Amino acid sequence: ADLFRLVLSAVARISAEQPLVCILEDIHWADQASLDLLRAMARATGAGRLQLVATYRDDEVSRSHPLYPLLPALVREAPTHRLALNRLRRNDLAAFISRTMPFPDADLERLSEHVYRLSSGNPFFAVEVLRALEDAGAITRDGDRWRLGRLDEAHIPTLVRQVIDGRIARLGDETRRGLEIAAVIGHEVPMSLWIDVAHDAGLTDEALADGLERAID
Predict the structure, then answer these.
(1) How many CB atoms within 10 Å of residue 96?
(2) How far apart are CA 174 and CA 1, in angstroms?
(3) Which one of 40, 70, 92, 196 is separated from 118 by 20 to 30 angstroms, measured CA to CA?
(4) Widest CA span in the chain
């Protein structure tokens, strides 16, 4: 409580002299005390020339995450504007690639379709796929232009695999087994086929349903 009063007093003093913007990155990694301080600061935004900008990854905020119940409270208690950064569409991804890597139209279409298929428009995954393609020699630079080689030899980048593995590891062994089965089936998974193979692997309907709910969450 003393720390909160000190921070709020300092913020009030500075914002009284000039407008103040506080930028808080990646608050999905914040502990409970930090989120409590954020809530206290948000309440103070209506009284002075203070603006808070907080960023977080929504796919990291499950229903059990401490940030989950805080978000509606912030909207309720402070003047709040939420800006959702959606996944890139195919044409957005093609435009991004063309700005950073000028390709002939045919190569740009082939590359952007390949990257979109692997990343589903996730900006972080898309950038890592492009880096992996460059490391594998599938993308090469020739002066001011870029050349595109074979794409069938490029794989999911190591960093992307590590991020996904880290998320799945938090879900438990049975959920991981169910998701491994789904991954082998393909990008789109018929539920009936998934259930049949899961039964053969020793997973019950209850375990599969519970794991699916946790994975979606």
Answers:
(1) 17
(2) 42
(3) 196
(4) 69
139 and 148 Cβ atoms separated by less than 8 Å: yes
Identify the residue whose tokens are 């000028």: 102
Is the separation of the CB atoms in 41 and 14 below 8 Å? Answer: no
206: helix, strand or coil: helix
Q: Distance between CA atoms of 100 and 105, rounded to whole angstroms?
A: 14
Query: What one-character DSSP code corresponds to residue 23?
Result: E
The DSSP line for 118-143 is: HHTT-HHHHHHHHHHHHHTTSEEEET
Q: Can you tell me which residue has the tokens 């009936």?
A: 192
pLDDT in tens, the chain (217 residues): 899 999 989 988 888 889 999 999 999 999 999 999 999 889 887 766 889 999 998 878 888 889 999 999 988 988 888 898 888 999 999 999 999 888 888 999 999 999 998 888 988 889 988 988 888 888 888 887 888 888 876 677 788 888 888 888 888 888 888 999 998 998 888 999 999 999 998 889 888 888 888 888 7
